[in-house]
Amino acid sequence: MSGQNGDDNFDQSPLPDYSNSVAPITSPINPKHPARRLTPQQVDQVLGQLTVTWESLPQLPFWAPLTSRNVTWQRNSVAANINALAVTLQRPLASNEVNAIAQIACKARVKETYEIPLVVAAAAFFTYRGRKTWRFPLWTPKPTSTWFSPNFFPTIRAHILQGPQAMALWTGTRFVAYVAAIRCISQPMFNSWANVGYGLDILRDMRLKSLVQEMQEMTKKERPGSQNTQQQQPQQLKSTPWSEQPRPSWRTPQQPAEEKSAFDDDSGIFDDDDDASPVSRSHRRSDPAISTTPTASGSSWSRLRDQAKTGTAASKSSGGYSPSSETDSYTYSDSDRESNYAKAQVQKEFDALLERERRSSS
Fold first, then answer.
1. Could you tell me which residues belong to the region Disordered (predicted)?
2. I need a labelling partner for 259 at 20 to 30 A (CA). Which of 62, 70, 156, 272 fits?
């Protein structure tokens, strides 16, 4: 039963035989386990397409078997890498491509084994440094502890060993604890380093140039929308003239309405103007509050008083702030506002002058 259950973990489907190429395994793959495990027969069939000997490829160092990373593990990993690329490209690989991938994959597996001496050295260092306090990873026993003592193992009350034997066992326990703690950090780092190096070596190897180009073309075909959008945007900006490009409406205020020229109004020849007023006749006609009212009779002082009254009313109306005047229309430019303000100031000074003359004469 055990042998039968073990065979169920492998795919027994035969591989087609290609000369000088590797046939990809194209049977359905479980999405939850995309890295499919190959049978020993399939591994031998994939690696049998190598035109170089296995001994000529990068070999594992002597300490690799200490962590179950032996030759069998390396062969299975290399065959899986070759088959994964064949499945991705949906075509058998050529002999030179198989040789290049096998060499790069063996090199990546050797890089992963460099973790072992580094972990052992780091664990030995931390074990030796904490020998006086018997420090463990993330924990240091207290000297007044009622259950821990380096002279008794595992506890003071229920101890099995004592004396030098207990101290040696506690030292070994601390060393193993440091190895486990350091591997939790170092193993992902070394795996990432090996995988990144594997990908870079594939991109740099001239024997795999056509294979890399095929993979890049497949990637472009999978996402055509994003590239078309990026290509269309600069082309649209270049083809569209500046005058036709949309502009924000709030930056282009409306042009003020055409003002009627004062020279077009010939009714002023019958008006009774006062040459003493600093405001011109055209401005007084344009502003009804400042324009003078012609009188058939009366002295010049009465007309001046009437002008002063109308000028004061105009200055009050123009000096006040009206929120609706600015929000109803955007044609009221800054130059018109400054002009009206200057006229109002001149009119105020003229009114003050008339008032002083009137008081001095009375």
1. 1-36, 217-343
2. 272
